[in-house]
User: What shape does this take?
Amino acid sequence: MPRLAILVVLMCLLVNGWCNSAFASKHPAARPTATPTGDALLQSAYTHFYDLEYDKCIEEFETSLKADPENPTLINHVLQAELFRELYRLNLLDTTLYAREGQGFLSGARPENADSKVRERIMKLSDQALAIENSRLQKNSDDIDALFARGETRGYRSTYFALVDKNSLGALRLAMGARNDHEHVLKLDPANIDAKLVIGSDEYVVGSLPLAVRLMAGLAGVTGNKKKGLAYLQDVAEHSQSENVDARIALALFLRREARYADALKDVRSLGKEYPRNFLFALEEANLLKDSGQGLEAIAAYTNVVAKAKSGGFAQPHTELAAYGLAESLRGQKKYQEALEDYEFVRDSTQCSRELRQRASLAAGEVLDILGMREQARQQYQATIAFDSESVQAESARKWLKSPYRGA
Assistant: This one.
C-alpha cells in the first residue's frame, strides 16, 4: 500500500494543494458578487499565497467569502490556505520527501506538533463546502462549477488525511473522487483545460508505479499513463491563464523524478523570478542542482538561500531545509567538517520536523565516523534511535553502532 499512498500525496499535494484555486477568476458564476473589488482582492490573496504569506492570504480570502458565504469556490480558497499554512509549519512541503520513493514520510505517527484546532477548522470548512457542492449536484449532476469545486474540496481534505492524519485509505478514496469530478468536468466541457491539471498529475503518478502495483491499482479503477500525464500538464502550463503556475510546479517535480533536471530547472527558475519571496521555489532550484550532480553550483545556491533567509528576503523561511541540503552538498564534495556543522544545526533546530532532525542526526554520525571520531559518532547514532526507534534511520543507526560507517 505505501506506493499507492504516494499517488495520494503527489496528486493532492502538488495539484490540489499548491494550486491557487484561481478557477473563480475565469468563471463568473464562481465570483463573489457583493464586493466590487473582489477580483483585485482575490489576486492580492493569490500573491500572498505564492509568497507563503499565509496569514495575509487567509485574511483576504475570508473578506471575499464574507461577501458571498455560499460560494464553495471561495470556501475552498480559505480551506486551501489554512491547510497549507499548517503543512508549511509542519515542514511537510519539503519536496525532497516526494521526489523520491522510500523516504517513509507516510509511515509513523501523526506529526507530534499538529494543531488539533487547525484540523477542526479544515474539517469544518471542507464539510461546509461539500454540503453546498453536493446540494447543487443533487439538483443538477452536470453543474460544472460545483463539480470542479467538489474536486478541489476532496483534494484538500485528502491531502490532510494523507500527510497529517496518516489515513492513506481515506485519502485515496477522496483523491479518486477528486479525479472523477474533474474527469466529469472535462467530459462536459472538453475545452476546460484547467480540469486537466488533476487528471494529468494522476495519470503521471499512477503511470510511474511498478507494473504489479499498477495492476493492483487498476483493479480499484485507478489507471495512468506517464506520457499522457506530462502532456496534459504541459498543455495546462502553456495555455491556461489561471492554472499555469500550478502546472509548472507539478511538472518541475515530475521532471525531477524523471531526472530531466534541465527542464525542471527552467520551470523552477521562472517561478522564482515571478515570486522572489517564495522560499520553497529558491530551495527547489538548489535541490535540483544537487540532484543533477552539480555539487559546487548547489553549494552556492544553498548558501545564497540561507543568506537571503537570514537577511529577511523570504517570507517565513524554513532555513533548516536549506541547511540540510547544503550539508548534503558539502558532504558530496568531501567537505566533511563544514557539512557536520550544518547537520548539527538542523539536528538542533526547534523549528524542524522530527523526521528531518533524525536524518540530520544519522548523517552527522556518519560524517563523524568518516572523520575518525568514533565515540562522537556512536552518540549521534544513539540519538538517532531515540528520535524514532522504528524508522529506517534508526535501523541504519543500529547497524553503524555495531561497526563504523565507512562511506558509500
